[in-house]
Structure formats: structure tokens, C-alpha cells
Amino acid sequence: MNSFNTEPRQVFSLDNLTVNFPTRKGSVPSPLQNMNLKIDAGRITTILGRSGCGKSTLLRTLGGFIQPEDTGGVLYKQRFMNGPTPEIVMIFQENNLFPWLTVEGNVKFGLRFRKDDTRDQVTAVKEILASVGLTDAAKQYPHELSGGMKQRTAIARALITRPKVLLLDEPFSALDISLKRHMHTLIRELQADTGTSMVMVTHDVEEAITVGDRVLVLGGNPADFLIDANTTASAMLDRYSYDYLELQKKVERVIY
Ligand SMILES: Nc1ncnc2c1ncn2[C@@H]1O[C@H](COP(=O)(O)OP(=O)(O)OP(=O)(O)O)[C@@H](O)[C@H]1O
Ligand SMILES: [Mg+2]
């Protein structure tokens, strides 16, 4: 036993996870029923699946925003979760920017609990805005931004906090292909620098394979993980490699 390595290997474990949605008359079942899965710490796990299969529900549950049935649940670092924690930051599918704050204000909001020097915060905001290509939009308000600019603002707001766990729900769906690839590199570099555990939902097969260390495909009702594959370095780095094309074929056969 290595006493220096006290970090658990798993960041999350789904332990007989069932989610039902509350209604006025009781509840309706979500696609997530009695699910089991271990998600490794310090890696990027990507989740693909048809619309409505339960991806966002799963991600929100990992973030502690949905309380599952008490027949099981989600273990975060070996303990059952019972609500959101500041260690876990989620980028929602709907951005959720504050309309009364500028781009800069929205990003700085991520640092509200920090006691850092104001000058350091200003520098941090500038740096992160530059890395997502929003320097010139710093003083603009959300209603003045394109969909892709809003997404990048939400990403900057999440990244600036340097969370232990980052949950991303279709974060790059509104970006053009070159910005998307730039963001993929940024996310991979951030992960390599900080060891952040990430779970990212996407509809983009290429994105799932080139960003993810592990690719999951969710499907069926009740839902199941139809594919659970580790990516290889050649699949991640080369979209024409044998490994990439094999995994793409396998995934597309299940999804389409
Ligand atoms: N609060 C809720 N109450 C009732 N049903 C819900 C609720 N939230 C989601 N659902 C239903 O649960 C199912 C899964 O929804 P979810 O948002 O997790 O899908 P998704 O896989 O993220 O889809 P998409 O790819 O379109 O974002 C859908 O059928 C949806 O209508
Ligand atoms: Mg969704």
C-alpha cells in the first residue's frame, strides 16, 4: 500500500442510482434506474447518447443538484452526496449567465468566495478571458453576445475557480470548428496541469473521442451504458488513426 497516494482512484461511484422526478402527484421515473458505475479521478470521461436518454439528469445528479432515491446514490470521494459542494463546478447546458453583469463581471463572480488580492483577481480574469478569446468582449452584457461567446463566458467562469471536479454539459455546442478545437486543447491542457476530474456530456462523437480518456454511451430506457471504452493516445491525437476510426464506428453504430 502506497501511503503517499491517499487520493481515491474514483471521484464518483454510482451505487444503485435511481432518479425519479417529483410531480404534484408523486413522481415520474427518469431513465436512470438502478445504475452502477465508477468514474476515475484525474481523468476526462465523456458521455454520448441520444437526446432525452438522461445525460443532463446524470450530470446534475453528479453535481448534487438532484437528490436521487435513497435506495442508492452517488458516492463522491467514497461518501454519499447530499447536495452541491464548492469543489464540484458545473457548466449547465443553458449557460446561466447573469444578465445584469458584463462578461468580466460574470467571470469574476466565480471568484466571489476567494480572499485573493483584488489585483490578482483582475489579472486572473484578464488571463482567462484571453485564453477563451473574449478580451474584446469583457465589457459586454450577455444579451450582446453570440451563443458561442456566452458559452465561452460560462466556461471561463467555471475554469477560473480551478475546481477539483468539472462537469460540462454540451459546453462547446455553439462554437465553430476551429474555436471548438481550441477549447478542446485548452481543456486538455488544464486537465494535465491541474489533475481536475472532468465529466463532459456531448453530442459530438469527434469531441468525445479526442477530449475523453474514457468514452461512455448512454442509451435505452431504463438507461444503460451501451459502450464503455478507454481511448488511446493515437485515437485522441489523430482523427485518421485506426483506433479513432474503430471507436467512431463502434459509437456511431449504437447512436445512429
Ligand atoms: N424535471 C423533470 N421532470 C420530468 N421529466 C424530466 C425532467 N427533467 C428531464 N426530464 C425528462 O427526462 C428525460 C431525460 O432528460 P435529460 O435532460 O437528462 O436528457 P438528455 O440526455 O440530457 O437530452 P439532450 O441531449 O436533449 O440534452 C427526458 O425524457 C426529459 O423529458
Ligand atoms: Mg441534456
Give a quick set of tags describing it.
256 residues; alpha/beta; Rossmann fold; six-stranded mixed sheet; four-stranded antiparallel sheet; 8 helices; binds adenosine-5'-triphosphate; binds magnesium ion
What does this structure look like?
By secondary structure, the chain is an alpha/beta fold. It has two domains: 10-87 and 163-255, Rossmann fold, CATH 3.40.50.300; 94-159, no CATH class. Helices cover 34% and strands 23% of the residues. It has helices spanning 55-62, 103-109, 118-131, 147-159, 177-194, 205-211, 233-237, 242-255, and strands spanning 10-17, 20-23, 26-29, 35-40, 44-48, 73-76, 79-80, 88-91, 165-169, 197-201, 214-219, 224-230. The strands form three sheets. It has a six-stranded mixed sheet, sandwiched between helices. It has a four-stranded antiparallel sheet with strand order 4-1-6-7, with no helix packed on it. It has a two-stranded antiparallel sheet with strand order 2-3. Helix 5 (177-194) links the parallel strand 9 (165-169) and strand 10. Helix 2 runs parallel beside helix 4. The longest helix is centred in the last third of the chain and has 18 residues, at 177-194. The mean pLDDT is 93. Adenosine-5'-triphosphate binds at residues 21, 28, 30-31, 49, 51-57, 93. Residues 55-56, 93, 169 line the site of magnesium ion.
